[in-house]
Amino acid sequence: ALLVLPTGDGWRFRTDGGPVRIERSVWLGGTGAPVRTSQLVIQGEAEPYGAGERPPNRVRWAFQRL
């Protein structure tokens, strides 16, 4: 996913955990009032008794400034 800020700065989001999509969301900020926002969602299936030490329960991700 490529994120571009209003300033024009960009960030690339990468993961090995599965497909990434952007979904609408709500943020409850310091005032407690809901604010519309978006979130990155990594889709996948986890093993119910996995410890997170290896895939699919371990998901590596990174942001890279462009």
Could you walk me through the main structural features you see in this protein, from its secondary elements to its overall organization?
This protein has 66 residues and is mainly beta. The two termini are 12 Å apart. The model has no long low-confidence stretch (mean pLDDT 92). It is 0% helix and 48% strand. The protein has one domain (2-44, 60-65).
Write the layout of secondary structure elements.
Elements: E1 2-4, E2 10-15, E3 20-28, E4 34-42, E5 61-65
Antiparallel strand pairs: 1-2, 2-5, 3-4
Structural class of the secondary elements?
A: mainly beta
Shape: extended
Contiguous uncertain segments of 5+ residues: none
Q: What integer is the average pLDDT?
A: 92
Order of helices and strands: EEEEE
Give the amount of beta strand, in percent.
over 45%
Percent helix, as a range, is: under 10%
Adjacency order of strands in the biggest sheet: 1-2-5
Secondary structure: number of strands: 5
Assembly state of the chains shown: single chain
Q: What's the number of domains?
A: 1
Characterize the main sheet. Answer: 3 strands, antiparallel
